Amino acid sequence: GENVEQHPSTLSVQEGDSAVIKCTYSDSASNYFPWYKQELGKRPQLIIDIRSNVGEKKDQRIAVTLNKTAKHFSLHITETQPEDSAVYFCAASKVHSGAGSYQLTFGKGTKLSVIP
Amino acid sequence: EPEVTQTPSHQVTQMGQEVILRCVPISNHLYFYWYRQILGQKVEFLVSFYNNEISEKSEIFDDQFSVERPDGSNFTLKIRSTKLEDSAMYFCASSVGRGDTEAFFGQGTRLTVV
After folding, report:
1. Which residues, including other chains, have CB under 8 Å from residue B40's CB and lie 6 or more apart?
2. Residue A86's Cα: distance from chain center in Å?
3. Which chain B residues touch A if contact means CB-CB below 8 Å?
4. 3-state DSSP call for residue B86?
5. pLDDT value at residue A99
6. B106 interaction partners in chain A (CB closer than 8 Å)
7. Which residues contact B59 (CB under 8 A, 6 or more apart)?
8. Do B12 and B110 form a contact (C-beta atoms < 8 A)?
9. What is the spatial distance between Cα A31 and Cα A57, in angstroms, rounded to a whole number?
10. pLDDT (tens digit, 9 = 90+) per residue, B23-80?
11. Are A75 and A35 in contact (CB under 8 A)?
12. Is B31 helix (H, G, I), strand (E, B) or coil?
């Protein structure tokens, strides 16, 4: 089955600096890669996702890049703010033609701390 | 904004007891999921459900687990005989489409088995 590795497990940055979180996946058939943000005691919430037909996607201060050949994808947060502090999870999923593999396989998470 | 809702938020049960965790997915969603997160660890897939049947399940989802959609709105996870290692946060999720569309998560039920 799919295996998703995520690094680093913890990351501390100064407010205003950039943060980068990296994930690798094992199944070359995976084609959907969401990123979830989970604040302490709250539900995971989707912040950005990318499909395998694109290499990069950006939404304001957040961007995700995908390298299908190397099977890795990264989350980039620019101009970090204290409210960005949370645990971030990457995930991978795949969809076969005519059916869906419905499960998300998550990485272990990165605890991001933004220091004011 | 529509949300996935779960009840209860916290459940404490004795080992060996049965528990039922309840979820109300977003109304126009067709795919339903249960995930669990043991404290400090990653979110793990348990089961997906579509068209009134299980679509996929993980090795965690053994015979002690079952899911049901008893009516048009609720989606339940039953653990028949709880074990200490079942203690975790259980998240329900739903999505409009298949595995390449956004899954919306509920706020979770913290299950503590004592």
Report:
1. none
2. 13
3. 4, 31, 33, 35, 41-45, 48, 50, 55-56, 58, 91, 97-100, 102-108
4. helix
5. 57
6. 43
7. none
8. no
9. 14
10. 999 998 989 999 999 988 889 999 999 889 998 899 999 999 999 998 878 999 999 9
11. yes
12. strand
pLDDT in tens, A3-54: 999 999 999 999 999 999 999 999 998 989 999 999 988 899 999 999 888 8
Residue A3 contacts residue A25 (beta carbons within 8 Å): yes
Is the separation of the CB atoms in A105 and A89 below 8 Å? no
C-alpha pair distances (Å), B18 with each of A107, B48, B93: 30, 21, 22
Specify the pLDDT at position B41: 87
What type of residue is A38? Q
Mutate to test the interface with A, among B32, B43, B53, B107 (most CBs of A within 10 A): B43
* Structure token digits, residue A50: 């990318």
